[in-house]
Amino acid sequence: MFYRITIRFFDIIGSLFAIIIFSWLMIIIAIAIKIDSKGPIFADTPERVGLNYSPFKFYKFRSMIQNAHTLLKTDKRFKKFYMEYKKNNYKLKNDPRVTKVGKFIRKYSLDELPQFFNVLKGDMSLVGPRAYYFDELEYYISRDRKFKKDIEIITSIKPGITGVWQVSGRSEIPFDKRIKIDLEYASECSIKNYFLILLKTPFVVFSRKGAY
What we know:
mainly alpha, globular
């Protein structure tokens, strides 16, 4: 209980501070997205998995063409990339759906800025496991039912804007290893680890390690 209350306090303070500091930048990014390509400002992606496996609306600047998530699975033009996407741990290095503005904001993780509103609302924490898609976890569980317990532990805490795997290689880390890393964090989460990850995050963002 002490851990949850303390972390929530710092989540509120940290997210409010970030929203105030980066509000001007978020306005510029929103305008650039609207000028660069057709579609909404925020990514039109499916809901993510939150605390206790509950769904929530994930705020993120749109860095891809409109309806990109659905098109990857249904449009014949992207069949080859969809196979690569699944084979490459739900990531694409040269994703043809990424827009010009999207390429820039993804490189510096600027597309993640709206997630501070998720933290303020209480959907997310500043630090935690990745906010997974439901189909990612369902596929993982379908491979072996014993993995269901792992997911229950991971979703027993809120997903985070940053986390252990994000500061350890980001997109370069295979999906199964991400799950293992998130499981370890959720099993042994502490205030000390929370702040250590927060301190490491700016360096990783500016170094662009594992970003694509």
